[in-house]
Amino acid sequence: MSASFDPRVTPARPDLAAAHLKGWIAAERYSEGHAANVARASAPLRAGPSEDATLETELLFGEGFTIYDEKNGWVWGQSALDSHVGYARAESFTNAVIRPTHRVIVPATPLLSVPDVKTPARQILPMNAKLDVAELESRFVRLTQGQYVFAGHIAPLSAHQPDWVSVAERFLGAPYVWGGKTFAGLDCSGLVQTALEAGGIAAPRDTDLMEAALGDAIPLETDLRRGDLVFWKGHMGAMLDSVRLIHANAFAMQVAIEPLSVARTRSAAEGVPVRTIKRLR
Predict the structure, then answer these.
(1) Which residues, including other chains, have CB under 8 Å from residue 58's CB and lie 6 or more apart?
(2) Using CB atoms within 10 A of its CB, is residue 234 exposed (0-12), middle (13-18) or buried (19+)?
(3) Over the range 1-22, which residues count as b (16 or more CB within 10 Å of their CB) and which as e?
(4) Using one digit for the tens of pLDDT, what is the confidence trace for 68-83?
(5) Is the dihedral of CA 254, 258, 262, 267 positive or negative?
(6) pLDDT digit string, tens, across residues 55-108
């Protein structure tokens, strides 16, 4: 039996599919897959096994990933965070068991080889990177893998930001990068997903998936409030208050704040009106 499916969140190709899909999706062969964790600050997840393939999203340090196939230095699999499927460089992962206890709560923090601010940073970890903390040493914490991060830049996984919109505001001015999810560059849904995760709210990766999954639709002319999500075809942003919108956008090529009325007028002139506003429960 075969069924229609969304390839963005379903690990299935004509030649290979996840074993749990057998009997539902036809494929030449099936794989049980194996668990891995991201060992780089961020790992690009692409639409194909090429550096020139579209960036679908980014996997962050410590996140889980199920690998179903590996060939020519590339793996194909599925993200544990939001089920997104794609290709990434095999060197970006470790098979070592990592059980994250904390996450990074600032836009970026250095990963150090010793607990000394003068030592060169091994990597710059992005917000929501997942860390397996072994012990606190003075102002720094030691990870089970032996590296160090500043204790003031992390929090337990169970601790969430009470105002997730304020997290989005911390990315003001960050460049717009399609598929990005770090302060080095992010797109509209990457910004919102990152902020929501910091606030303890699970969300899919792409705009249309968020539009379908999150909150309740409200009339387009309703008086808006902080945290309302505004959706266009292929774009989204979050309200700071009843008037202002924050969004990563290709018009400004960065995360910007502007009156929603200005963004609506500009997009409507391009034939793309606001189509949905969602209020989170």
Answers:
(1) 42, 43, 44, 45, 179, 180, 181, 182, 190
(2) exposed
(3) eeeeeeebbbbbeeeebbeebe
(4) 999 999 999 999 999 9
(5) positive
(6) 999 999 999 999 999 999 999 999 999 999 999 999 999 998 889 999 999 999
